[in-house]
């Protein structure tokens, strides 16, 4: 559980009376031990895989639509980008300005999937700018700023892309498709007036683009400008939501006048700091993780019991499917196997949603046939509870003679030490006295042999089925 008495206080819950709010320091110092722990997390190789899964949900196409090889190449590119801690502006520039063969460059899978300029426009607006421009495709909402011209002028940035080769109607193992920029005057007809619309970024001035200049580079130049009000804020909001359980703007991709942020000064400050540090995602995450608000306890009190918006406490959230499955493997000391992957592959290293896993499907992995961007439903369900209680695969892990239970059952450790190890492995803490008394009695009363093994299995089964294991709290 996070420490609610941390020293850093750069953001106070908005529900505090103004005179009781601690004076902010951005960011405030925290104990060196915790600072070291944060740095260790950010340097672990699993960090790259974890965030590759998060962004892969949003960027990876369906392999049945685009092809297996392009999706694998895209996943590889995403993961390597996170391993290198590639600046986010560079990541987006490389993705949106890609060209070449779909069987050589994973970034081309984006073009292969979002084949039409209007599809690319909706994707860029939602994922990288945080606005659902697709709503303006047919009409203008009376209370919002975006209209049809904004939508189609954003699409115009992608009208000069040409392609040849086998299209997306090909079999899964289809031939490559080639994409390239063709010089010319970029424009797209207005769907109502048929007036030719030239490329123009949302809320930006019209710019002149020469015939030999790729309009996509102009778009990215505008997106990553320090004064751009959308790009940095949208990225910061997504990272905040992933770490805190709720975005400062919620839903994370719905920035609009009628959906204001819960804490606009905080969002603006984080965005400015993100830009000032050259779009460094690790710096952004470190800043949030060092904050007082991130370290608050999830245990509510009488003043914040009903708060679901102002971050006066940590919001409990279910662990992502891949994280939870890897945790089960770690706790039971058994490995999971996935089709067409090397032995020992972690769940967070799987590269598409079609790799079979009943566990990950039950715990919210996106539907493999769905059109991305795929936001996950993080709410718990009866299906998840029933899966943990009745899964034959989980039972096989518990009874595995080479796993943790088998080793503890046949070892010489006293019941007290066995219980301590199970709690440390599962919860990263020692059991409370009353917890230990119950678990020790179960194992001690069983005696030895198969009965002891069954008792250890029962204790670990109960821990894996607990809310403390399933939820980040």
How does this model look, in words?
The chain is mainly alpha-helical and 473 residues long. Among the domains are: 61-223, no CATH class; 321-472, no CATH class. Helix content is 45%, strand content 4%. The chain has 21 helices and seven strands. The protein has helices spanning 32-43, 45-59, 63-66, 68-83, 88-96, 108-113, 117-128, 148-155, 215-223, 231-244, 264-276, 281-289, 321-332, 358-362, 382-390, 392-399, 404-410, 415-427, 433-446, 450-464, 467-470; strands at residues 100-101, 161-165, 177-181, 188-189, 196-197, 317-318, 471-472. It has a three-stranded antiparallel beta sheet. A two-stranded antiparallel ribbon has the order 4-5. Strands 6-7 form a two-stranded antiparallel ribbon. A hairpin with a 6-residue loop joins strand 4 (188-189) and strand 5. The longest helix is centred in the N-terminal third of the chain and has 16 residues, at 68-83. The chain is globular, with a radius of gyration of 25 Å. The model is unreliable at 1-27 (pLDDT under 50).
Q: Give the mean pLDDT.
A: 88
Q: Which stretches of 5+ consecutive residues score pLDDT under 50? A: 1-27
Percent in strands: under 5%
How is the biggest beta sheet arranged? 3 strands, antiparallel
Radius of gyration: 25 Å
Shape annotation: globular
Q: Helical content, roughly?
A: 40-55%
């Amino acid at each position: 559980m996070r420490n609610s008495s941390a020293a850093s206080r750069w953001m106070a819950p908005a529900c505090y009376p103004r005179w009781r709010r601690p004076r902010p320091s951005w960011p405030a110092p925290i104990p060196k031990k915790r600072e070291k722990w944060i740095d260790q997390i950010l340097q672990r190789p699993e960090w790259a895989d974890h965030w590759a899964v998060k962004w892969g949900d949003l960027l990876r196409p369906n392999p049945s639509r685009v092809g297996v090889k392009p999706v694998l190449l895209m996943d590889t590119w995403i993961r390597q980008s996170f391993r290198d801690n590639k600046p986010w502006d560079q990541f987006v520039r490389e993705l949106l300005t890609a060209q070449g063969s779909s069987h050589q460059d994973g970034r081309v899978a984006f073009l292969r999937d979002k084949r039409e300029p209007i599809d690319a426009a909706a994707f860029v607006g939602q994922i990288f700018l945080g606005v659902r421009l697709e709503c303006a495709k047919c009409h203008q909402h009376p209370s919002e700023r975006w209209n049809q011209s904004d939508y189609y002028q954003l699409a115009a940035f992608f009208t000069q892309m040409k392609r040849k080769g086998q299209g997306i109607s090909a079999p899964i193992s289809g031939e490559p498709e080639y994409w390239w920029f063709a010089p010319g005057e970029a424009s797209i007809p207005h769907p109502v007036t048929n007036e030719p619309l030239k490329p123009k970024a949302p809320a930006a001035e019209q710019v002149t683009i020469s015939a030999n200049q790729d309009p996509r580079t102009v778009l990215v130049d505008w997106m990553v400008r320090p004064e751009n009000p959308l790009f940095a804020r949208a990225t910061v909001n997504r990272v905040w939501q992933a770490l805190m359980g709720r975005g400062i703007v919620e839903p994370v991709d719905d920035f609009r006048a009628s959906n204001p942020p819960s804490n606009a000064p905080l969002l603006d400050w984080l965005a400015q700091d993100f830009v000032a540090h050259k779009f460094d995602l690790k710096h952004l995450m470190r800043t949030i993780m060092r904050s007082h608000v991130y370290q608050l306890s999830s245990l509510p009190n009488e003043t914040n019991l009903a708060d679901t918006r102002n971050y006066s406490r940590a919001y409990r959230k279910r662990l992502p499917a891949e994280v939870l499955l890897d945790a089960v493997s770690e706790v039971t000391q058994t490995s999971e196997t996935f089709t067409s992957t090397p032995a020992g592959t972690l769940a967070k290293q799987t590269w598409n949603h079609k790799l079979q896993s009943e566990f990950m499907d039950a715990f919210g992995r996106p539907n493999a046939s769905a059109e991305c961007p795929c936001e996950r439903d993080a709410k718990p369900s009866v299906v998840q509870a029933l899966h943990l209680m009745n899964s034959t695969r989980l039972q096989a892990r518990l009874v595995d003679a080479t796993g943790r239970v088998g080793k503890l059952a046949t070892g010489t450790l006293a019941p007290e030490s066995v219980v301590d190890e199970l709690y440390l492995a599962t919860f990263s803490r020692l059991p409370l006295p009353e917890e230990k008394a119950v678990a020790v009695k179960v194992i001690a009363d069983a005696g030895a042999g198969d009965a002891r093994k069954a008792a250890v299995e029962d204790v670990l089964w109960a821990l894996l089925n607990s809310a403390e294991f399933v939820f980040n709290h």
